[in-house]
């Protein structure tokens, strides 16, 4: 008889690409994962995975079975979720991904409170600034700041956020405070490498774009903030990274009379995984936790007047 834990292991191995990574994701010993996978292959009478010294790949039978295996697990999870709803409780696994900086600064505390309110949920959170493939990597949902590039996903808005130009007081004392786009373009900049180096602004006559010289490029917003605190240059950063430093005066907001282009915070999930009760409750929890406008923008000055 085919066992559900064998199906779970097979899907984890297929999505992770290795037995060791699958074992890490589902919290089992590597030997247990190997044993359950071997048992499933014996029950099915088919080789699902081809193992070599360098990599692991699905066989033709493995590819054929994978879709069915995912359907089995999804239906079991949905059935369990429906029973939990009937009992007035939520339970079971929930796996999400999010950006590193935002996860450290804000997401962690919101999720800790969520788990305290729903102790039956087993949450896995992977923080990664790369744009993960939600379905292929086995996530229920992904949290992103900015546009969702994958049009196969269903995106649910959490809140709008602002980007602000910031610098350390020491940098501005040494180099002057830019008062226009032309002056800003001559400044030393700290750029985020996962976006292009353009700084976009919203003007009455449309978007305005400048390309300041990069003093530093880095793929993490918290490292960018620390570089700005050290006086390396000016950065355009989401308000959720800098609100506390602006409040205590360690960073200064630069106002050139035109507002940096904003962004929105989303949670997205594959259309073939309709939002489960757990995910629906999580989405509403995050919306209430962050607020709209979000709590980290409570002390920010009013938006700059737009100039053409």
From TrEMBL:
**Keyword match Lyase:** no
- Identify one Pfam family in the record: LysR_substrate
Q: Which UniProt keywords apply?
A: DNA-binding, Transcription, Transcription regulation
GO molecular function of the protein, one example?
A: DNA-binding transcription factor activity
Query: PROSITE patterns from the xrefs?
Result: HTH_LYSR
Give the highest taxon in the source lineage.
Bacteria
Q: Which Gene3D superfamilies match?
A: 3.40.190.290, Winged helix-like DNA-binding domain superfamily/Winged helix DNA-binding domain
Q: Where is the HTH lysR-type domain?
A: 2-59
- Give the GO biological process terms: DNA-templated transcription
Which InterPro entries does this one have? LysR-type_TF_proteobact-type, LysR_HTH_N, LysR_subst-bd, WH-like_DNA-bd_sf, WH_DNA-bd_sf
Report the family membership: Belongs to the LysR transcriptional regulatory family.
Q: What is this protein called?
A: LysR family transcriptional regulator
